[in-house]
Each structure stands twice: as C-alpha cells, then as structure tokens.
Amino acid sequence: MDKERKFSKRKHPRLDNFDYSSNGAYFITICTHNRRCVLSRIVGRGLAPAEINNIEYTSFGLIAQNQLLLLEKRYSCLSVDKYVIMPNHIHAVLILNGEMAGASPRPTVMDIVCAYKSLTTRECKKTGFVDKLFQSSFYEHIIRGREDYDKIVKYICENPMHWCYDELYTEEVW
Q1: Cα distance between residue 113 and residue 137, in whole Å
Q2: Which of 48, 77, 136, 172 is placed for a possible disulfide with 37 were both Cys, Cβ 3.0 to 4.6 Å?
Q3: At what angle do helices 109-126 and 59-74 cross, to 10 degrees?
C-alpha cells in the first residue's frame, strides 16, 4: 500500500453561518458503524395492506429508542417529533423550540446528536455490545416549511415498508 496515498478532503455537511441551535425542525439520519444491522429487523416485506411491515427491535434498538426519548428530559428546548429505528440507521425529526434557560448555552443539533450517540453507545456496551455502534458523522436537513415537513414525515413512516429498496439496505446481520 502506498504510504503517500492522498485522501480527498472530507466535505463538512453543515451550512456555513447557520445557527443550529435556533428554533426549528431538523431531519436527522444516524447510521450504524459499517451499516451493521444491529438495531432492528423488518418483518413482513409485502407492499399489500394486509402485509403490514413491523419493526422488531433488538436489545440495542430498544436502548436506542429509550435514549432518543430521554433526550427530551435532557434538553428542555427539544422535542422528538417523529422517528423510526431501522436495522442500520435512525431517522428522526427533532424540534428545537423555546427560550434559552439561564446561563447555559442552548444546545446545537450537533450537541444533541453527539450526546445521543454517546449515551446510547455507553448503555449498549453495558449489555454486551463490544464494537463501535455509530458512524462518526450524521446527516441533517433543516426543514423549511410545512410541505417539506410532510414529505419527511411520510418518508419516515413509510421507511420500513420500503426497507429492501432503501439506499442504506444491507443484508440483516444481528
């Protein structure tokens, strides 16, 4: 392997000069490390209404769900609006609202996601998870209105039904 190999510079995915602690709705996607299917399993891949897709959480997926919902207690300005925990990724709409509390700076979306990933990983390791749980980064999208919000919520709700066609789909390994 060539020691002089040059790697392309990683593009920072956040918008310049945007305050990610400002009131608003944010769509986030967090992927597991190496896209391993360790959070859940999709049962019933049929598209017919009688073949409704269900999500069966693994023990790590249950921890991920619990820690996601506990974020609202950790951050009074946050509400977790919609979410889905897929086998190898999590989609969520986070809503930041309200005023700053006291002398503490208001958390940014990155602060919230980093805390979530850290707390979830710590709890999973207590139950036997020995690998890295999440990828180092995450995807975010600033929701820019009702139409954008409705489209994202529809995507989140329908994600299990379209799992085998999802760009993050991999063979299930849990």
Answers
A1: 9
A2: 172
A3: 140
Report d(CA 49, CA 53) in Å as an integer. 9
112 pLDDT tier (thresholds 50, 70, 90): very high
Alpha-carbon distances, residue 157 vs 6, 49, 71, 83 (angstroms): 41, 14, 21, 8
- The closest alpha carbon to 111, from 78, 88, 148, belongs to 78
Confidence category of residue 96, pLDDT binned at 50, 70, 90: very high
Q: What pLDDT is attached to residue 53?
A: 63
Report the C-alpha gap between 52 and 31 in whole angstroms: 24
Average pLDDT, the chain: 84
Judge contact between 13 and 142, C-beta under 8 A. Answer: no
Alpha-helix residue ranges (DSSP H) falling in the chain: 59-74, 109-126, 146-158
Asked whether the beta carbons of 166 and 159 are under 8 A apart, the reply is yes
CB 83 within 8 A of CB 156: yes
Contact by Cβ (8 Å): 26, 141: yes
Q: Is 2 exposed, middle or buried (0-12, 13-18, 19+ CB in 10 A)?
A: exposed
Residue of 107, 93, 124 whose CA lies nearest to 28: 93
